[in-house]
Amino acid sequence: MTIRSLEGAGAMIEPCSQLKAWARALIDRRLRDFEEKRAKALEHPHDPEALHDVRTRARRLRAALEDLHDLIPEANHWLRVLKRLGRRTGAARDNDVLLERVEGYASRTRGATRAGFERMAERLRGRRRRLAERAIAAIKRCELAHDHEGERQP
Amino acid sequence: MKARRIPTTALEACSEDVMRREIVRIRLAEVLACAPALDHGDAKELHDLRIACKRLRYALELHRDALPPEGAAAEHVLAELQDLLGELHDCDVLTSLAKKRERGVVRTIERDRRALLDLARRRWREALQPTGALSALAAFAGFGSPQGSTGGAP
Lengths: 154, 154
Description:
The complex is a heterodimer. Chain A is mainly alpha-helical. Chain A is built from six helices and no strands. Chain A has a single domain, classed as CHAD domain (Alpha solenoid), CATH 1.40.20. In chain A, helix 2 (15-43) runs antiparallel to helix 3, helix 3 (48-67) packs across helix 4 and helix 4 (75-108) runs antiparallel to helix 5 (111-141). The longest helix of chain A is centred in the middle third of the chain and has 34 residues, at 75-108. The radius of gyration of chain A is 21 Å and the shape is elongated. In chain B, 68% of the residues lie in helices and 0% in strands. In chain B, helix 1 packs antiparallel against helix 3 (43-62), helix 4 (70-97) packs antiparallel against helix 5 (103-127) and helix 4 (70-97) packs across helix 6. Chain B is elongated. The two termini of chain B are 18 Å apart. The interface between A and B is medium-sized, with 33 and 31 residues.
């Protein structure tokens, strides 16, 4: 049963169905957000901020699914998919964040310490492309909305 | 750290308000249970605290429209704590990446880590003051002031 048809049913709805519809509406909001950022990241595969946005929306969706777990039949499946996505995109994001931090250290230190930070930054830069490609491949594969629509078919 | 399940069957009344309060209560309990990490300074425990803060923050954000103003203040504090704990985590990762002979690099990162931990402790203490954001949220969630208690779920 879709949310739209539940809304139309009004007073006929059992309290528990109402709770499920409420949970579904909250999850749908998070799902739409996630899908929007996912599409943007696929359009701009080399933009680190687009990757970050997908990750934060995926985490928000995941948190909502954990909170409303018993009210969403697809929760287990989606949680598995999102966990995998988090793992596969995490390394790229972490690498970007660490690189920024190391560059900051390098700019405010001197001598051997600075040289150490510069070497570290070089190592992190060297991993960037490979990790970004792995992340974008994982984002491409993660199609929750299609699963969602499929499960709603009568 | 695995999220605690929010049991819908144990709820007395099957309503959105009860469910919402239960989500906040359980997620806040998770944060309080992880809080001793700030005293210990252990990397793994601090990481768990960060995840717990994130879960509570996302829950407050998702239900923002239906929560009292205490929710928004707590969201702000949690976002700040989450950022500080994230930076602490970056320091731990960078320390493990640094070569042992690069003492200047390790010393710089460790100095940064200490400052971040001090700041996180300060923010936490402020949030638990009687007028602090997390105390107010604890009252809303239905358990007494968490002041002085950093561990144990209610």
